[in-house]
Design a protein that fits this description.
Blueprint (H helix, E strand, L loop, with lengths): L6 E6 L4 H20 L9 H7 L6 E9 L5 E8 L1 H10 L12 E5 L11 H17 L3 E3 L25 E9 L5 E9 L2 E9 L2 H22 L6 E9 L4 H13 L3 E9 L3 E9 L1 H8 L6 E5 L2 E7 L5
Parallel strand pairs: 4-5, 4-6, 9-13
Antiparallel strand pairs: 1-3, 2-3, 6-7, 7-8, 9-11, 10-11, 12-13
Length: 315
């Protein structure tokens, strides 16, 4: 489950009322981009404008931190109220990408004669991808990533060069020419389909940022298209490996934190399992999609969509 989806930071020139209001509005747009998974979200859209008008009322807390680079000012650290924002998006009928998201492996394409070790340029690219992915709410991993800090709280052993362990992967090449003009060629493999990208940007940092935007936009749209029904339906599911009250409470807390789930009721308690009645957007298909990449819940088998194992070591 990706953390920090309702938090962001925005640079301010000062603490004036005008700057603070601008900061709240800009912060809300950045959070909406993370929640919807779509980079084209902007204040020009009518529904976004409606939310911006009440941006300050959605703030749960905020603080400031002084900065001196690239210029003197301060960062506004803003956290928005999750429940209120989810309800507002529901009222406006805006679909939200859930917080359980696939980890995408990024790998620089190298010729066979090239060194397999990472050079400084490779590390810089990976660090830029990492920062941008955090802004977009996408878990990422890297080949030979022991040199790069991961952007989500998985164990360090999860971040190794093994493409088969990831739901999706991106292989890309970067060519920088005159005046730092940068061309990117990339291929994204996700859900057994390939999406290719080719574009030119004014510099390598903008090129990397655009690559991450294109990847996130495609992944989010693909996942949301897999659940066409958005009405709330109730389903009864059975969960195994619940061995203590603490694990039971942890399961309920996890389910309650999922944006697609509205209510959870205990249906029955058996000797080895627990049955819950869950009101979820999209019904059974919606539940399957919102926990598809979960490290906490896993279907007992591909043939039974109504039974899940609870993984006590998951996140």
């Amino acid at each position: 489950m990706v953390e920090g989806l309702y938090q962001t930071k925005v640079f301010l020139n000062d603490r004036s009322t005008a700057e603070l209001n601008r900061g709240f509005s800009e912060a809300l747009v950045k959070v909406l981009i993370k929640l919807t998974g779509q980079s084209e979200i902007s204040s020009n859209l009518p529904w976004v404008r409606t939310l911006i008008d009440g941006a300050e009322s959605f703030i749960e807390r905020y603080s400031f931190e002084p900065v001196s680079e690239p210029k003197i000012g301060l960062n506004l650290l803003a956290a928005f109220d999750k429940k209120i924002l989810i309800q507002e998006l529901k009222t406006l009928e805006i679909r939200q990408w859930g917080s359980v998201r696939p980890t995408i492996l990024f790998e620089i394409a190298k010729k066979h004669e090239d060194s397999i070790n990472l050079n400084n340029s490779d590390l810089n690219y990976y660090e830029t991808i990492n920062r941008k992915a955090i802004e977009r709410g996408l878990p990422v991993a890297f080949s030979e990533s022991r040199n790069v800090q991961p952007n989500v709280g998985y164990s360090s052993e999860f971040y190794v060069s093994n493409q088969d362990r990831y739901p999706g992967s991106v292989e890309f090449s970067i060519n920088t020419g005159v005046d730092n003009v940068t061309e990117v060629n990339a291929a994204l493999w996700f859900l057994k389909e390939t999406k290719e990208f080719n574009f030119i940007e004014t510099d390598s940092e903008n090129a990397i940022g655009r690559l991450v935007d294109l990847v996130v936009d495609h992944v989010a749209k693909t996942i949301l298209l897999n659940v066409r029904e958005t009405k709330t339906q109730d389903v009864v599911l059975e969960f195994f490996n619940i061995k203590s009250r603490k694990e039971f409470e942890r399961l309920l807390a996890y389910l309650s934190a999922l944006e697609q789930i509205e209510k959870v009721f205990v249906k029955s308690i058996e000797a080895t399992s627990l049955k819950l009645e869950i009101f979820v957007k999209g019904g059974l298909k919606g539940f399957e999609q919102c926990v598809l990449y979960s490290e906490v819940l896993q279907r007992t088998s591909n043939r039974n969509p109504l039974q899940y194992n609870f993984l006590d070591k998951g996140k």
